[in-house]
Amino acid sequence: MSDREPPRRRVPGPVKPPRPRSAVRRQPGPGARPVRRPSGARPPVRSKLRLGSPRPRLRMVSLALTLVLIAFVVRLFQVQAVDASEYAARADQNRYVVHTLTAERGGITDRSGVALAVSEDAYDITADPTMFSAKQLKIDDGPEQAAALLAPILGQDQATIVKKLRPANRNSRYTRLATRQTPQVWKQIKDLRAALAAKAGTDKRTVNVLAGVFADPSSQRVYPNGDLAAGILGWVNADGQGAGGIEQELNKALTGKDGQIRYAQAGGREVPTAGSTQTPAVPGADVELTIDRDIQWAAQNAITEQVKKSRADRGYVVVQDTRTGQILAMANSPGFDPNDLSKADSAAMGNAAVQDAYEPGSTAKVMSMAAVLEENAATPLTHVVVPNRLHRGDRLFSDDVDHKTWYLTLNGVLAKSSNIGTILATGQLGKTQDAANKVLYSYLRKFGIGSYTGLGFPGETPGILAPYQKWSTSQQYTVPFGQGFSINAMQAASVYSTIANGGVRVEPTLVRGTKGADGRFTPAPKPGQTRVVSDKTARTLAQMLESVVDDEQGTGNLARIPGYNVAGKTGTANRVDPATGKYHGYTSSFAGFAPADNPRITVYCAIQNATSGSYYGGQICGPIYKQVMEFALKTLQIPPTGAQAANLPVDYKP
User: Fold this and answer.
1) In Å, what is the CA distance from 213 to each residue of 145, 167, 178, 363?
2) Full-model pTM
3) What residue ranges in 566-631 does DSSP mark as E strands?
4) Model confidence pLDDT, tens digit, residues 380-403
């Protein structure tokens, strides 16, 4: 190997760049070796589709996005700036709900604070109609099933409830099913709803059709004494407004001022964290009446029994304090129970003692005698010859009983209640009959006939008293003994209280005062007073009225009260039937005061159209007067005066 020449090393020369294949093509000749392609190289592929530039498409997309963003910006600006307040209001309207907080109605008490009308907790039963839809309950007759369960509890017709649960406005979320229901009614509904919910939780076939029934706290009017003084108190209707009596007359004061609560809600429920605003309700004022519950009970019990016994249409008793004009009792029969108006007779739902107008009869003779005495036309001892019949104008007048000629004093004319004697006495009031009519008319007006009493009671009638110039021929002679004009029972009682009060008429009152929410008592305004006759005339009349009760010839013997001097007058008048406008039946009455020599209490009683037993006022109203007057004297602890009766003569020997 040493003999061999060492191998020569190759020195690399400069490397020439390869020439492009496209530029140099080797032409194969004969015997040439084929050209070898580099490893991994592929033959070039010619493209058949040439793509466009993406820039135009990007511009179009950018423009579209820009327009959309501009639209969003414009709308956002409109909502948040231009119409912000309107949309906020709409949102609040949908989100927030407002409920009225009903003010508690003031109570009504008698003069001693005994409750006559109070407000107790109650509930308004409500529902969300959307929760009774087929979509919500998965059944088609949800309202019908709910109504079938609720109707007997609420005492309503099923169809009425269904109509409320399926209102015309399908979006309505509130309806009132019943108002002022007792807590017991709401508890019954709640228990039934809970039972359905419990059963629905275990039985998939059961649907709680009462899930959408709720309750709003409210109050209801309750009259603890039932029908006692119902004619005075009145009642409250379904809307919570006074609809009769004191409830209506003083409704504004009793109602108070409702409050309001506003809160956010979702799904029909309050959102506690959203806050709420509330304006508290102001309770109504409490009203204290002048009546005495016990005396009212005695009067109402007495008149109710006599109306039933006499099978009469109706009757009334009024008891009044002669000095103050305050009404101690005002009873009507038949009456009604304001706790359950569904059983009340509409004809009895009022205060007939101030709403009925009727001809008073002989109890009105006291006004004629007052005019005669005040005008000095006669004295209690003036002799009056009373014939069996008296021809005046186009009529022949008589007394209630047929008699021979009576020789009576003016006192005797009143004691025996002579129509003829009264006509003769009032004829002395003027030189002519027209002049006498004018004088008598003026006194009737002073006594309050033909005018409202001043009570301001709903439905009160002023009565009917035509101007004397329009009196018919017969009226000129019937008015003096109580026919031909009309009054109400309160007016009649006021006449006798005027005589008892020394000739001063005090407007009757039923309200002593009110107590506001602040607890302060505000007395009622003092009633108006009018001098009608002198004190002397009033005292003389009181003595004459004693003869009606105490003298054996008087017509009011059944009204005597042992130990007391009693002044009174009977009345039996032809009655105008309100249905036909013609005379039919009688109005029986008795009026008076006691003690006669120091008057404290006036009692007036009237019964309309007694059809069983006697219809004379002294026979059926005299005993009522005695019963009620005795009770009132004892209740108010008014002792006898111990004075001797006047014993004025009734007749004389010619």
Assistant:
1) 13, 15, 11, 61
2) 0.79
3) 567-576, 583-594, 601-608
4) 999 999 999 999 988 999 999 999
